[in-house]
Amino acid sequence: MDHSLTRKWLLGLTALLLAAAAVLLTACAQPTPTPTPEPPTPTTAPPPEEELPSPIEAATCPYLDVWAQSDHADAASESFTHWNEEDPREIPVECAKCHSTPGFLDFLGADGSEAGIVDKAAPVGTVIFCEACHNPAAAQLTSVVFPSGMEVKGLGDEARCMQCHQGRASTVAVDEAVTKAGVADDQVSADLAFINIHYYAAAATQFGTLAKGGYQYPDKSYDARFGHVEGFTACVDCHDSHSLKVKVEACTTCHQDVKSVEDFKKVRTLGSTKDYDGDGDVKEGIYGEIEGLQAMLYQAIQAYASEVAKVAIAYSSAAYPYFFVDTNGNGQADQDEANFQNRYNAWTPRLLKAAYNYQTSLKDPGAYVHGGKYILQLLYDSIEDLNEALTQPVDLSKAHRVDAGHFDSSAEAWRYWDDEGEVRAACVKCHTAEGLPMFLKNNATIAVEPSSSMACTTCHDPANFPARYEVKEVTFPSGAKVALENLDANLCLNCHQGRESTVSVNRAIAAAGVDSDTPSEKLTFRNIHYFAAGASLYGTEVKGAYEYEGKTYVGRFEHVQGFQTCVDCHDAHALEVELEACAGCHKVEEPEAIRMDATDFDGDGDTEEGIAGEVATMEEALYAAILKYAAETVGTPIVYDAYTHPYFFVDTNGNGQADPDEVNSQNRYNAWTPRLLKAAYNYQFAQKDPGDYIHGGKYILQVLYDSLADIGGDVRGMTRP
Fold this sequence. Notes:
Layout: H1 3-29, H2 55-59, H3 64-68, H4 78-81, E1 90-91, H5 93-99, H6 101-108, E2 122-123, H7 136-139, E3 144-145, E4 151-152, H8 158-162, H9 171-181, H10 202-207, H11 235-238, H12 248-251, H13 286-309, E5 313-315, E6 323-325, H14 349-362, H15 367-387, H16 412-415, H17 425-431, H18 435-442, H19 456-459, E7 474-475, E8 481-482, H20 487-493, H21 502-512, H22 533-538, H23 566-569, H24 579-582, H25 611-634, E9 638-640, E10 648-650, H26 674-688, H27 692-711
């Protein structure tokens, strides 16, 4: 195939389309319509097998007028004219894909070349027009490979947009540059230069840690794809694919105050309850929160450059390469400073990472919509990292990095399955946005893709929005069925109930068929799972803890009228305890200080401490008894780590500590006896509901006391409720 002929045809068609667009726009402005001239015939027709539209078909395209008003058609913009005065006068290979139609067709392989790469420079003078996206090769795109090397599959039409709107750098590029420089965090290196994400990297913002477009600090977890709501998750769901304009009217169903694109800057969801930038305003839009953290990061960047790198820095959003030496120290990139010869030249690894994230936050002007929380995390972490080297750190004490658990999409509860790309069916109900509605409808779940967090439609029925799903009864793992008076609270109980019970522990022990102190390979640890507040609240009615035979236990903790359900005491979105409402009866500042019984349950002589203190002492005593029993009776020392599954491990060196080399699944504890399993299960039960002392304090004290007594712990001086 003669590619030069194809390019000539494309150039001819570009001229035709621009001429036709000009005629259409002129016609709209004139009272008397101007006849459209006959389109010129291109000098060379493309081979038939390319299936490109003829000039006449393109000129009569029904979308031509709206396309002509888009940035994709702006032939005078820097995006398409930057190379006009270059020698040679062409668009380089590394830029051609996104700055010309021939380059994009080359990348697709639509011109007969190898797909996935650009083979040659593209001619100047084109824009992004019809056949860039309307061709068989583009229609087959279902995935995109980001600069980090991460590939996202299963995409629709948005795969075409994302080939270019993904940026050109990533965590990987920054780390590679730092590694190559081979210097310490705060050491200036002539081998380091600013790395630019490039412009309008909306896909990198939206896909967060799945693309790693921002610089992600080690040991930090970041938001993944911002899924928004069904029907508004992809580029073409929210933007007209020809005019590129936001479909504002489609957003007003939920965002009723939005009348224009500018109004989106005021939007924040009910799940965004934190004051991210620490300015005291939790009503401003996410845009304002990002602006606040951007200002704080720029302050930290300038302070660090002067104090640590010893060369003052200033930023200009309109001049390449954006960061310059602030020669007069006035904090501004003055006109005589914002030039390539004065580019900043005292980069350290720490400064480069922060500056990269600052630029990333600025060069996607819609970042606050595409993935605002990912951007907030990048900004916060950059400030935090620079603060480590500053004598006067930027104050982050009132700022927040993440939301409450249901909406903290960087949390392990949502990100655990990212590498697998699928949330297992057994976990879907509580760890995906669509899981609970699926379970309520079908009483079953299937595996689905990971979610960014809970969504409005997790609890609110979209067919009757904003009404919530109505749940009249909830079944616990023991098989017990219960119901709270407030039906909204029953939604909470579907997940905050744990995943095990007395029933499942007894079943496992029966299957092992050994006596109380004989280890069995058939026994493994049974994990109640996290935040089983409902199990604590209902006590023996649902048997969430292990209840010893012959003992009696308290049932539901009733508290007082108006404070008996989840949503009576917790804000449904922020999840925080509404402490002010408790002040009428409890004259304490923190719930941990609350107690309504003078009994010294833990036997430490302190009857003034809250029930939380009584529980904590019994937990400590039980853990010590577990360690002693495992070492002396079983003969295999045990150790616990609250943050690593499966939590109990072999204490290989017998030091009573969970050392890093011991905390791994290969070293999981493997000498369980029935007695040890029961005690360990109850210890974990108490650990994994951090509010158990409020939800059902006496029930928790009972199971801890009984566990201690059964495993041989010292309960003298203690009192069982």
